[in-house]
Design brief:
Layout (H helix, E strand, L loop, with lengths): L2 H25 L1 H4 L2 H6 L1 H27 L9 H5 L32 H4 L9 H18 L2
C-alpha cells in the first residue's frame, strides 16, 4: 500500500468537505452566523449543550452495556475445552459412614457406673505434670495463631 497515495486521497477528501461547508455558508449565511445568537442567549445555549452532551453520554453507555453482555452463541461449549470431566467425589465431602453404635436398644441408660464398667474407657495418664505442660504448650500455640 502506497502511503503517499493514501495521503493524497485524504487531502482530496478534506478539500471536498471544506468546499461543501463553504458552499453552505455562502447559501445560508444567517444559519451559520451564530456569533450574534450565542452572545445574546449564552445561558440557554450552555444548558442545551449540556443536555445534549448528557443524552449523548447516556446513549453511549446504553450501547456499550447492551453489547458487553456475552450471548450464549458466542460462549464455547463447556465440555469442548474443559478436557476430561472431574469426578464429583473430588468436589464434595463423602457422606457420613454407616456405623452401628454399640448399645442395646431395649436397655435403660445407667445412672451409676461401676469401676469395672468404666475401666476400659478411662485411663489415668502417668506423669500428669508432663501432660499438663504438653497441653499448656499446645493451647499457647493455638492461641498465638488467633488474631
Amino acid at each position: 500500500m502506497d502511503l503517499i497515495r493514501v495521503k493524497e486521497k485524504a487531502g482530496e477528501l478534506l478539500n471536498k468537505i471544506a468546499g461543501t461547508l463553504r458552499a453552505l455558508t455562502e447559501r445560508f449565511p444567517l444559519l451559520f452566523d451564530l456569533g450574534h445568537f450565542l452572545a445574546e442567549k449564552r445561558r440557554i445555549v450552555v444548558f442545551v449543550s449540556a443536555g445534549a452532551l448528557a443524552l449523548f453520554l447516556i446513549l453511549i453507555i446504553a450501547v456499550v452495556a447492551a453489547h458487553s453482555g456475552g450471548s450464549e452463541k458466542s460462549a464455547p461449549p463447556i465440555n469442548s475445552t474443559a478436557g476430561p470431566a472431574i469426578p464429583a467425589g473430588e468436589f464434595f465431602m463423602p457422606g457420613e459412614p454407616d456405623f452401628v453404635p454399640k448399645f442395646i436398644p431395649g436397655r435403660e441408660p445407667r445412672s451409676f457406673w461401676s469401676v469395672e464398667e468404666i475401666r476400659p474407657y478411662w485411663k489415668i495418664p502417668d506423669k500428669s505434670d508432663r501432660w499438663r505442660e504438653e497441653i499448656k504448650s499446645t493451647v499457647d500455640k493455638l492461641m498465638e495463631a488467633v488474631p
